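Action item from last week, closing it out:
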Amino acid sequence: MLKLRRAGAGARHLRGGSSLTSAPPRNRPVLRSRTLWYAIHHPGLSVHQTLPAGLRISDYVCAAGAETLLIEIGGSLRYFGGWRRLHETLEQHLDELYQHQPEVYRGSVTPSPAASTLLARCARQKVVAHSSELRSALAGITIAELPLAARLKASLQRCGLFYLRDIWRLPAAQLRLRFGRELSEYLDRLLALRPERPPRWQPPPQFSRELYPEYPLHNTAAIVHHVVSLFAEYREFLLRRHLLSAQFDLMLHLSDGQQLALPVITRYASRDTSLFLALFELALEKHTLTADVIGLTLSSISLQPYSPDQQVNGLTDMLSARLGADNVLRLQLAEEHAPEFSSATQHWHSPPSLLADTCALSYRAPAWLLRPAQRLRQLHNRPIYKSQLTLLSGPQRIETRWWAGNSIRRDYYVARNRQGSQLWIYQELGSTGDWFLHGFFC
């Protein structure tokens, strides 16, 4: 059985005394070039930290959870000249990651991705060359260690099934009928009876370009001239990979050794170089260069897949670049029946609230509200705004916020005066019966 552990300067070894770097014993099958999955469980490290190490030995690596790396090594054995060289290459890079960490990392090799992952997570570190050996290799794993629903595991244990060896003794058809498809399909994946191809991990696309002009750049016009060529390369990169950019950094390298970072952020991902250039110029205006610019570096930060219906709002981005992100707001609906509390403001870079889509007023209300509402004059109990008002529709009664201590009881009407203005007015329900103007319809 394969045992990987940190032991200072000592080598990793097999349980049973055989070294990993030695030739396999006669009774152990030699790993050949077939589909084999090497799972490495590394507690304490994110799988994204170890994925690059897996790419050193195979082009097919997967993330099997937050702390488990899965590598297809069947096609790499011949390239490395066997298991020994392949394992030495991988453990060299893993040692670099674990140099200052005491955690133990464990690995297992089987023809099944699910079996390799399960063995590695349960610290059963084994090398299984043939699928016919999977039953015996997995027999000692308890039901509690399986990645199944807690309810299903409890049902198995109530039936006296505590190890996988207990399940192997049952007929597959009756097992599926009694415990459902989830367990049956998982057992088939463990024994490599069901084809399984985990999604291949690929590093996220990144863009980074450096440009060092032949002469120092003294003014803004010269800087912009060279930035345009960087933006052209950036746009070509986005087009080739069907991506959009939401944020990138432009670093200016100054002749006095200083660096000036200018982040360019758009509310909606885009690849409009004219918008990028306008935002860069606005960001550059806020800084005073202390020396000549001798180099430029453009680095992508946030890339998104291209979508044909992607929204682009260049005006908002330019206002934010000039005025500051905290000074550009957007109107957002709130879950309130009282008109004066039914809207709020958000910063433009904040993600839109779901209330904007799910909360809609159940009555007709204008977009322009007066804060506070304006008391109207009355003539014979008829409201006046520049002239006597004619009621077009209503009343629409609103009674709310009694729990907050500022109870609202009103009858709303749509009205029009002789000048043609269409108004939203209400009358207080109570002893006074005053009329108020609350908004204008466009």
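Closing note: The chain is about 25% helix and 30% strand.
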